Amino acid sequence: MNESRRLARIAFFGKVLFGRIVFLILFFFLFYSIGIFYLPYSGDGSHIAFLAEEGWAVTMHSPLTAVAHRAAYLILRPFEPKYTAEWYIAAAVNAVMKPMRTMSIGAHPALDAFLSCGAYAESMAQLAKSTHWGWYTTSASSALAGSIALQVLFAIRRHPLFLIANIFTGSFMVFAGEVENYAWINLFLLLTFLYVEKYLLGQARLWPGALCFFIAALFHGLALFYLPPLIWIMTKKKDYRPYEFLLPFLFYIGGYLLLNTALPHEGININIGRLVPWFKINRKGQHFTFFTWIHLYVKTYFHLCASYFGILPAEWPLLFYFRRMIDGDFKRYLLFCSAIGLFWHTLWHPDLGWIDWDLFSQIYIPLHLLLGLLLSEQAEDWRRAGKRRDNA
Predict the structure, then answer these.
(1) What does the alpha-carbon distance between residue 23 and residue 384 come to, in Å, rounded to a whole number?
(2) What is the per-residue pLDDT for 52?
(3) Spatial separation of the C-alpha atoms in residues 330 and 233, rounded to whole Å
(4) What is the mean pLDDT of residues 141-148?
(5) Nearest 5°: phi and psi at 302?
(6) Tens digit of pLDDT for each residue in 352-390?
(7) What are the beta bridge partners of residue 58?
(8) Phi and psi of 308, rounded to 5°?
(9) Mapping DSSP to helix (H, G, I), strand (E, B) and coil, where does residue 312 land?
(10) Cβ–Cβ under 8 Å, residues 231 and 196
């Protein structure tokens, strides 16, 4: 009896594992195909693709992402096709001509500079996409993170409205094979949110969530903005153990120092110069000051890009409408993360111009999770109310 039960359990877990692997492979190829063949590219991926292809150098603010992209390139390098010289020349001509057509818009000098920065990066991205295998392997790296992220969303909730509220958004497009540094950090933030909820429900200890959070920070330092909500939620349970937070934190410190000392590194340090200047431009790469209409225009554009379907910025009005349903520590934790995200989104300066939309779209990850929970719960309330009316 015990032997048959053990065999049945093994068969069950084998079936589940097989199904998840099939799921992972199918959506990996789907996201990769969407990113490479169907979506118009609107980001800055040329330098990231070159970095993946040319060596083990890491960027200081996202060291683990650089390692992941480099590993993807090395694994997939045997499949690199042999391009012709004619393709190289055509790609180079196209890369040079596009910024000439889009550089000047005749509006405002600061806005011209802001958009031309993006136009130049876009042209370099086209050249990299046409001539470098690193472009495609980096896209595959992001697509793999996206296929895992889908399974994490399923693990949080499987309600159709919850999934729609998180997948059909501009912020989710970084998972669709985008050649950038944000898919892996967003994946590990999703894992953090999953394990935080399990921690609050008593289904897991704190350390898995804390470990996922600090791994996210190794993929990109942007994650550290969400440290205050994690510390706050850690203390919501009286039996929390501080070492479950401290050990992952030490892992992060050691990992960051190791990656940035053992491997060649480049990039910018995160300092106060990265913020939007209040009244006067202080350094090269800053395009506007805080109290200008260009700042408002640019940040509104970023909100639009990250919104539902990339065109419907309904998130904040919906959050206000459902504000009375934000009960329980997990929802308040997601609200805290969303507020922190809005804060840094407003203050941070987009040095790369309009193509920095993907960096700023990250704030919508916790917000879409929260709205997905609220929408799915509201739908269930309406369904139950409808059944009661039918039975009355």
Answers:
(1) 32
(2) 75
(3) 8
(4) 93
(5) -65, -40
(6) 777 888 889 999 999 999 999 999 999 988 888 777 777
(7) 265
(8) -60, 125
(9) strand
(10) no
Nearest to residue 44, comparing CAs of 353, 380, 368, 379? 353
- Tell me the average pLDDT of the chain: 81
Residue whose structure tokens are 């998840």: 20
- Report CA torsion sign: 139, 141, 147, 153: negative
Q: Which amino acid is at 347?
A: L
* Both structure tokens of 236: 């919501």
Longest Cα–Cα distance of the chain, Å, equals 80
The residue written with tokens 């009960």 in the block is 327
Report whether 77 contacts 52 (CB < 8 A).
no
Residue identified by tokens 């990656």 is: 259
CA distances (Å), origin 67, targets 48, 61, 124: 11, 12, 22
> What's the whole-model pTM score?
0.87
- Dist CA 374 CA 335 (whole Å): 12
Question: What is the rounded distance in angstroms from the CA atom of residue 382 to the CA atom of residue 22?
Answer: 35
pLDDT greater at residue 175 or residue 91 = 175
**Which of 88-97, 107-116, 291-300 has maximum average pLDDT?**
291-300
End-to-end CA distance of the chain: 48
User: Are the C-beta atoms of residues 114 and 152 closer than 8 Å to each other?
Assistant: no
| Cα distance between residue 155 and residue 274, in whole Å | 36
DSSP alpha helices (H): ranges in 307-351? 315-321, 329-347
pLDDT above 80: residue 201: yes
Query: Residue 65 contacts by C-beta under 8 Å, 6 or more apart in sequence?
Result: 59, 181, 184, 185, 219, 220
Amino acid letter, residue 53: E
